[in-house]
Write a structure and sequence with these properties.
Hexokinase, domain 1, binds magnesium ion, 5-stranded mixed sheet, 13 strands, Nucleotidyltransferase, domain 5, alpha/beta, binds adenosine-5'-diphosphate, globular
């Protein structure tokens, strides 16, 4: 491809991924109306799910067990709430979830989890005969009628264990624990990782009113004034009033849940690498990349990961040696400097769009409760994408400045790790106290 034609191709590509300030304002407006429709029970891409969780006082105390299921790993934690907004994770164990676990039956999946909890409890030293309360962080859309139960609406991400959709996941966990003989444990609360993240930060920071996840998937929740301050789980990953590129459409079509989780597919760690792969494959096809020589990696779905994009984005070396190393891992032995620069650009376009779309959604949540942005707000944010992707949070902040001007300073984006553990303990403590 000639240099001019290549530049033209690149310009078009950049334009298709660009989210302008006007575009952000339009997204925020649509987000507000979808939030309102969801709250009113009308058809909406935003489910706005009541969680039966309210603001903690910060005085909650005691030892609790937390289970965090929803991503690449699941974790069991022992958490100490000390009151005064202070808490500590005393012990934590991580268990890898393999494809065999998440694509099996509900009974087998929860059996594996219950056995892991049993092993963990053997070392918990809670005192003989003492009953412990467990907070279950479950990061999938759930329909709740109380804090200690919830029906799985549908699996997202790569989960597909049969016989769980439409069932109460607390009952599934309880039954599995019973089968394993774990009887001194009460599952007192079910919550989303987003809710856990919000509550964990709100326990120590009164200004915290939004929780956001930017990891394998993406979601957010907030305290809704019209529902007496109850936390509403937005399930924002499903927002769909967005302008899609042909790559977004191809990704969606080939996904396990076509037509759903449209925002998640533009934003979250599970999908960004795949978007980059699809763009690169197209550039190779157009002979704008690697002189049109097909590298096998670009022909394999999900062969390119967000973590690899992250490493390419972090590569600031003159000769792009970091990028070359990533490409080598992917089986691309020889890449010209301009090919590497182009790949870096592709990663940048995709991650910048993700940061701007997520910042816009965050802005829309903030202005729902504070339209004039007259107060200070803390958004508790968790997830590797936010934490580790180079300049992701800075790009989000830039977008907030474009939307709010000076008032963007009123927004603190606080990385809140362990939210799903500590938050689960806090919600379990509140629920156990009101039993
Ligand atoms: P989870 O969402 O599964 O609870 P994380 O928040 O750690 O866990 O997110 C994991 C996702 O983050 C992975 O799917 C991957 O796409 C992405 N990721 C992992 N490492 C990085 C990294 N260094 N930079 C950017 N994204 C990453
Ligand atoms: Mg997580």
């Amino acid at each position: 491809m000639s240099k001019n034609k290549k530049e033209d191709t690149l310009k078009k590509l950049e334009k298709s991924f660009d989210v302008t300030a006007a575009g952000m304002r339009r997204i925020a407006r649509d987000f507000h109306s979808e939030m309102e429709r969801g709250l009113a029970g009308k058809k909406s891409s935003l489910k706005m799910i009541p969680t039966y969780v309210r603001r903690p006082t910060g005085a909650e105390k005691g030892t609790y067990i937390a289970l965090d299921l929803g991503g690449t790993n699941f974790r069991v934690l022992q958490v100490e709430l000390k009151g005064g907004g202070r808490s500590a994770v005393v012990r934590a164990e991580k268990f890898a979830l393999r494809k065999a676990h998440i694509a099996t039956t509900a009974g087998a999946l929860f059996g594996f989890i219950a056995r892991s909890i049993k092993d963990f409890m053997a070392g918990a030293r809670l005192g003989a005969g003492k009953r412990a309360h467990l907070g279950f962080t479950f990061s999938f859309p759930v329909k709740q009628a109380a804090v200690d139960s919830g029906i799985l609406i549908r699996w997202t991400k790569a989960f597909r264990a049969k016989g769980a959709e439409g069932r109460d996941v607390v009952a599934l966990l309880d039954d599995a624990l019973g089968r394993e003989g774990v009887t001194a444990l009460t599952v007192s609360a079910l919550l989303n990782d987003t809710v856990g993240t919000l509550v964990a930060k709100a326990y120590e920071d009164r200004r915290c009113d939004v929780g956001v996840i930017l990891g394998t998937g993406t979601n957010a929740c907030y305290y809704e004034p019209s529902r007496d301050g109850m936390v509403i789980n937005i399930e924002w990953g499903n927002f769909n009033k967005l302008k899609l590129t042909p790559y977004d459409r191809a990704l969606d079509k080939a996904s396990g849940n076509p037509g759903q989780q449209i925002l998640e597919k533009m934003v979250s760690g599970m999908y960004l690498g795949e978007l980059a792969r699809l763009v690169c494959a197209d550039l190779v096809k157009k002979k704008a990349l690697f002189a049109g020589r097909p590298a096998p990696v670009f022909g394999r779905a999900y062969a390119f990961g967000t973590e690899q994009m992250s490493r390419i984005a972090a590569d600031r070396s003159k000769g792009l040696s970091g990028t070359a190393a990533v490409l080598k891992e992917l089986g691309v032995r020889k890449a010209a400097p301009e090919d590497m620069a182009l790949m870096k650009k592709v990663c940048d376009m995709i991650s910048t769009r993700a940061a701007r779309v997520s910042a816009t959604a965050l802005a829309a949540v903030l202005t729902r409760t504070d339209p004039a942005m007259s107060r200070a707000h803390t958004a508790a944010i968790d997830g590797s994408l936010f934490e580790k992707y180079p300049r992701f949070s800075a790009k989000m902040k830039d977008a907030l400045r474009e939307l709010f001007g000076q008032k963007a300073r009123r927004v603190t984006m606080a990385l809140t790790k362990d939210g799903s553990g500590k938050g689960a303990a806090i919600v379990a403590a509140v629920a156990a106290a009101s039993r």
